[in-house]
Write a structure and sequence with these properties.
- The structure is a single chain.
- This protein has 771 residues and is α/β, with parallel strands linked by helices.
- The chain is built from 27 helices and 26 strands.
- A 5-stranded mixed beta barrel has the order 1-3-4-5-6.
- The longest helix is centred in the N-terminal third of the chain and has 53 residues.
- The protein starts with a strand and ends with a helix.
Length: 771
């Protein structure tokens, strides 16, 4: 290395290195680099070019540069658009960087030249071996990689001096700038030789592997292309001859038809369609329709049946384990199973479970299927409008398919599944036909053994199917359809039943769903009762299950965050998990009041109590009703006031009284629509109380329809109404005498602690209710 240190303009390079004997073009865009070149052009055209360690650094300092760079002479400088300067430089000698200064307009460096001298190789045989190794490796690399032109390979291999050869190979060999920098920093020829030969050996091996992989890919592509061409040729030959694999397909269909467990009529139909398929060569659309039809016929379970469970005790055990309550449904299913055991056949009942949402209608159907060991198929009929959904589309239509009944049988794979017709009261109809009319044939035991599906075109036997329908409102089911089903009413759950259901079913289910263990969460009975009373208002248990799920999620969060082993939820800390209660029970009035009577109402989510309020004011005899009352309820109010006017003399009411006063009947919670005749006696009692100024007993509630002659007619929904009365702490309930049989069937748990008074005439109501 020279002892002379010189100060020259400096150009830091990003991602490139100038090697000995190299002539190269460099594009410069940094202002200080361009200024350095311009200074060099003014003086001796010498510039020091050194590579940056990190090419992303915009303003490099000395620590960002390598110690070894190249002194170069500028041969040419051309200005390009966007303030870029392209310079052609030729390397002069390597140099060592001692100091770098970028404080001025241009970068400068203090460097010392590294004196280059060709060291003598002691053994000529070693030199020849090294020369041959470099030439062979470079030649192999060039031939395998195709990155270097043959002319350039020939030119480089024509270099006889081993030192020049090494420099030329380093210049033309593609490599990263870090590898180039290693070559530039090599102090001895032996070190440079080892680096070059190692790099070329590695590149040759990589090129060989790439070539092998490319050859494999090419061979595979050639094979696929060859197979494609051959297939196309075979296809053309078969088309010319009018033959393809149709014959084998037809034979296969015939074999499947003969092996099918079905009547001869069905087998003949399938074979006939297969013969039709033979005559549709070239007509792909018609052949596609026939194939789809044949596949459907082959997939239907014509005479294939599953073995029903014949163990009565096992069936009862499954039903009891899956559901709490619902005794009528369980008893009816066990009766059916008992008849089957005695007669070896027995017609499958067609049941319709009617009740409020969330009372377990759909889930009990699944449980019945499990108890009887039947396949379960659920058909959701809510919102279905097209008759073709049940009977299927005729095959003349594009995209025709079988109806839901036939499709359900195909899914089940047997002819005796349990088929759930969910939400049968939500069906409707339009110009395409009424769904309920289509279901008449399905649900008629006398007709459904030859059910006709428009797509299948063959009679389907539904007599072995156990149909269970569900509905929320019986009034929405058409009468002819209702007549074909055996109704089982599923009423609201009592509070005690809900506690049992929560403890035995809902809590274990939600604990499992939310990844908890049984011992990690305990919900006390008083907490469950609080959830039922203050956080849910429903006939079923869906909202209750959601609230329990919410508690489980909060528990999971606390266990994960605070590493707790067990959490106990009580009535005292329940608010932390599900917030404050949304519902309050309206208790019975403390004192008897004039013109206010407590009535009982049935809603889709259970029973409720409502107060009828009557005010009488001086006026012209107007009669006003408020509280979003329906037509039936308004008529009941009119009937009530007509009855009061007819008995006015008994209570010393002047005839002019009704002309000189206005009557206003209001039922609170005005945003909630109300209808039905069951508030008739309640409104009549409230009107008379207001007229004669006599208060009504506070702990009384009543329900019943009134006639013009004062008779009290029976009403429905008594279980739900009595539940509501019990929650409101009502002591005495007046109900129509004709409802006595229904009251007797209600659990003692509901009527316990409450006096049920049966009334036949309105006069009895007034005598008992008025103070």
């Amino acid at each position: 290395m020279s002892d002379v240190i010189i100060n020259v303009p400096c150009v830091p390079l990003r991602g490139s290195v100038v090697l000995p004997e190299m002539v190269v073009h460099v594009d410069l865009d940094r202002k200080k680099s361009i200024q350095a070149v311009q200074e060099a052009l003014v003086h001796d055209e010498m510039v020091f070019m050194v590579a940056q360690r990190d090419k992303e650094v915009a303003e490099p300092e000395q620590k960002d540069l390598y110690d070894i760079g190249m002194l170069v002479r500028i041969r040419q400088a051309i200005r390009l658009p966007k303030e870029i300067l392209r310079v052609q430089v030729a390397s002069v000698s390597r140099a060592h960087l001692y100091r770098f200064d970028n404080s001025g307009d241009a970068c400068h460096a203090e460097v010392a030249e590294i004196e280059e001298h060709q060291e003598e190789i002691q053994d000529s045989a070693v030199e020849i071996a090294m020369y041959r190794t470099l030439t062979d490796l470079f030649k192999s690399y060039g031939q395998l990689s195709h990155k270097i032109s043959p002319d350039l390979i020939k030119q480089v291999l024509g270099t006889l001096n081993i030192f020049h050869l090494a420099n030329q190979i380093a210049i033309h060999l593609p490599m990263s700038f870090e590898k180039r920098q290693e070559l530039l920093e090599a102090d001895s020829f032996h070190e440079k030789y080892v680096l070059l030969s190692t790099l070329m050996t590695s590149e040759v091996e990589i090129s060989k592997i790439q070539a092998e992989l490319q050859e494999q890919v090419r061979a595979r592509i050639d094979k696929n292309q060859r197979e494609y061409v051959l297939r196309e040729q075979i296809k053309l030959i078969r088309e010319e001859l009018g033959e393809d694999n149709l014959e084998s397909e037809i034979e296969k269909i015939k074999e499947q038809a003969n092996a099918l467990k079905a009547s001869d009529e069905i087998k003949d139909k399938i074979i006939h369609e297969a013969e039709r398929l033979r005559n549709t060569v070239g007509n792909s659309s018609e052949s596609g329709v026939i194939r789809g039809y044949v596949e459907t016929l082959l997939a239907l379970p014509w005479d294939k049946m599953s073995r029903d469970n014949r163990d009565l005790k096992k069936a009862r055990k499954i039903l009891e384990a899956d559901h709490y309550g619902l005794e009528k449904v369980k008893e009816r299913i066990l009766e059916y199973l008992a008849v089957r055991l005695l007669t070896k056949k027995g017609d499958a009942p067609i049941l319709c479970l009617v009740g409020p949402p969330g009372t377990g209608k759909t889930s009990i159907a699944r449980s019945v299927a499990r108890a009887l060991n039947k396949k379960f198929v659920r058909l959701s009929l809510g919102g279905v409008r097209d008759e073709a959904e049940i009977r299927g589309h005729r095959r003349t239509y594009i995209g025709a398919m079988p109806g839901r009944i036939a499709e359900g049988l195909r899914q089940a794979g047997v002819k005796n599944p349990l088929m759930l017709l969910d939400e049968i009261d939500k069906t409707s109809g339009d110009y395409r036909g009424a769904i309920s009319s289509s279901l008449l044939e399905v649900l008629d035991p006398e007709e459904n053994n030859r059910f006709s599906d428009h797509y299948v075109e063959l009679p389907i036997d539904l007599s072995e199917v156990l149909f269970i329908a569900t509905a929320n409102d019986m009034q929405e089911i058409p009468r002819p359809l209702l007549d074909r089903m055996e109704l089982i009413e599923i009423s609201s759950y009592t509070e005690n039943e809900k506690v049992h259901i929560a403890r035995e079913h809902l809590i274990p289910k939600q604990i499992k769903t939310n990844g908890l263990k049984k011992k990690q969460l305990k919900i006390t009975d008083d907490a469950i009762e609080d959830i039922i009373a203050k956080h849910t208002r429903e006939a079923g248990v869906r909202a209750l299950e959601r609230k329990i799920g919410q508690i489980c999620r909060k528990t999971a969060l606390k266990i994960q965050e605070k590493d707790l082993s067990q959490i106990t939820v009580t009535a005292d800390n329940l608010e932390k998990y599900i917030g404050r209660g949304r519902y309050m029970i309206n208790p019975a009035n403390e004192q008897p009041e004039i013109g206010i009577v407590r009535g009982l109402a049935w809603t889709s989510v259970g029973g409720d109590t409502l107060e009828v309020e009557v005010n009488i004011m001086p006026g012209k005899g107007e009669f006003r009703l408020t509280g979003q009352l329906g037509d039936v309820m308004k008529e009941s109010a009119s009937t009530g006031i007509s009855y009061i006017r007819s008995i006015a003399e008994q209570y010393d009411i002047r005839p002019e009284f009704f002309k000189e006063h206005d009557f206003h009947v209001h039922i609170p919670e005005g945003a909630v629509p109300k209808d039905g005749p069951s508030a008739g006696i309640t409104m009549a009692t409230a009107i008379l109380s207001a007229v004669i100024r006599r208060p009504v007993r506070a702990d009384f509630a009543m329900t019943g329809e009134i006639t013009l002659r004062g008779r009290v007619l029976p009403v429905g929904g008594l279980k739900e109404k009595l539940l509501a009365a019990k929650k409101a702490e009502i002591k005495t309930v007046l109900v129509p005498e004709k409802n006595e049989p229904e009251i007797r069937e209600i659990d003692k748990e509901i009527t316990e602690g409450m006096k049920i008074v049966y009334v036949r005439e309105m006069q009895e109501v007034l005598e008992k209710a008025l103070v």
